[in-house]
Design brief:
With 222 residues, the chain is an alpha/beta fold. Helix content is 43%, strand content 18%. Bound molecules: guanosine-5'-monophosphate.
Length: 222
């Protein structure tokens, strides 16, 4: 991977919000993305949902009781939080802002309610919606995942219809029909966002100064 165009500036990192219906493949896509793009980090959410088989506290989620979660809401410790499928989910604020200050780009994999809160409080974020090719495929994927009860699957399918309507509030939509293609789209969005003129003003200023002050850059030397 080539060097970031704005590696040499003190710019804040980008906040990248990724949402989409349950089972659409956000988790898998984010994993591929984090492997492919340097200087990209995933925010670990807090949740009151019980861990699924194989999930590790602090790696997949920070698992906590509803009481502890509610205390953190009161203390304003979340950048956003929401009740999703009868459980609380939230993004720890301090950790995310610390990474952004350090110039790291941060991915939030969150639901549409949370994304709407982030958009209100942090409009400079980049909002990406992941869409399934169709509803039948989405249902198949949730069932195949085998991690949810029958009630939970039904609830997730019911919510998916509403979630699709929210896509209009996002900056980008990525269709997850082919995993590789979808990952490539995500990667391209992030790399293109990093190249925005508005995010590279320090670099431009430096280049312009160099060209204005250094006589030798105007001479041909063989
Ligand atoms: P799951 O229980 O399948 O891991 O996640 C259920 C839903 O909660 C997914 O749509 C996921 O994106 C969302 N989610 C995960 N973490 C957060 C978070 O920190 N905030 C919000 N608002 N949603 C989250």
């Amino acid at each position: 991977m080539s060097k970031r165009i704005n590696d040499d500036t003190s710019n804040q990192g980008l906040l990248i919000v990724i949402s989409g219906p349950s089972g659409v493949g956000k988790g898998t896509l984010c994993k591929i993305l984090l492997n492919r793009v340097e200087n990209l980090f995933l925010s670990i959410s807090a949740t009151t949902r019980p861990p699924r088989v194989g999930e590790v506290d602090g790696r997949n989620y920070i698992f906590m009781s509803p009481e502890v979660f509610e205390e953190k809401i009161q203390k304003g410790e979340f950048l956003e939080w929401a009740r999703v499928y009868n459980n609380y989910y939230g993004t720890p604020k301090d950790k995310v802002f610390q990474m952004l200050r350090e110039g790291k780009d941060v991915v939030l994999e969150i639901d549409i309610q949370g994304a709407a809160q982030v958009k209100k409080n942090y409009p400079e974020g980049i909002f990406i919606f992941i869409s399934p090719p169709n509803f039948d495929e989405l249902k198949k994927r949730i069932i195949k995942r085998g991690k949810d009860s029958k009630d939970s699957i039904e609830l997730r399918m019911k919510c998916a219809a509403d979630e699709m309507k929210a896509a209009l509030d996002y900056d980008y939509i990525v269709l997850n029909d082919d995993l590789n293609q979808a990952a490539l789209c995500l990667q391209s969005i992030i790399l293109a966002e990093r190249c925005r003129i508005s995010r590279n003003m320090e670099l431009l200023k430096k280049l312009r100064e160099e060209w204005a002050n250094d006589e030798s850059v105007h001479r041909l030397t063989y």
